[in-house]
Amino acid sequence: MTAPTRPWHGVLVATALPLRPSESGVLAPDFDTFAEHVAWLAAEGCQGVTPNGSLGEYQTLTPEERARVVTTAVAAAPEGFTVMPGVAAYGAGEARRWAEQAAEAGCAAVMLLPPNAYRGDERAVVEHYREVAKAGLPIVAYNNPIDTKIDLVPELLAELHGEGLIVGVKEFTGDVRRIYRIGELAPGLDVLCGADDVSLELAIAGSPGWIAGYPNALPRSTVRFWEAATAKDLDVALPLYRSLHPLLRWDSRTEFVQAIKLSMDVVGRYGGPCRPPRVALTPEQEQTVRQATEKAVAEGLT
Prior knowledge:
Blueprint: E1 10-13, E2 19-21, E3 27-29, H1 31-43, E4 48-49, H2 63-76, E5 82-83, H3 92-105, E6 110-112, H4 122-133, E7 139-143, H5 145-148, H6 154-162, E8 168-171, H7 178-185, E9 190-193, H8 199-204, E10 209-212, H9 219-230, H10 234-248, H11 256-266, H12 283-298
Parallel strand pairs: 1-4, 1-10, 4-5, 6-7, 7-8, 8-9
Antiparallel strand pairs: 2-3
Helix pairs in contact: 1-2, 2-3, 3-4, 6-7, 9-10, 10-12, 11-12
């Protein structure tokens, strides 16, 4: 892929974090494997990573682990490869500290949810983004009302953008109509695809970037799909999308971390287990993911 015009453009992988049993039996991050994974994603054509998102199980990490995820990704990233970590937290003070840590590590931007676990009103949301913006890095908002119970509706995004607090939004509602309304109210705000299973629809609508889960397992085919979709080459993009969709739709399900890690295992990468509260897939779920992944590989989707 060509170099992005902005660091948050292109295919940015919401990285899974490899965990292995330690001597005490507790699952611990394997930072060497994570570093290799970041470098591999760059070599496979992706344009960046967004560590410490939900796919990276950031809620279960200690502060030391979470900070080391960022520094490991930056150290492993080749020149021009974006590292845009999630800096979500319950309150703005903690989120700002994570944004400052990202800046010190050399990150190009950060991704920020509204306050976690607190259903703030619009005033609270604006103050949250104002505080984190003081860290000085460009902020891509993350709209995930399913988990946060706060919906960054187009009007609120326009207010945040108009004040210069955000440069983009990772849109995860699955409502493909929103990109048009956001474009009307906030021209210049980049609407990034945040859910794998609506990526074609948002690419056609003009989304300049995809914060994606399944490139963790199938980077080449997902990048090839995104390039074709953003070029409006449906002869290439649509067949790829149809073939990938049985897997892409897992990105919008509760078990998305387990599913993507299993697909990584199937294709010969290391996905591994998840920390609690996540539990293993049911046998039926595992069979569905495994069969869909094996089918994708048999079709040459790597």
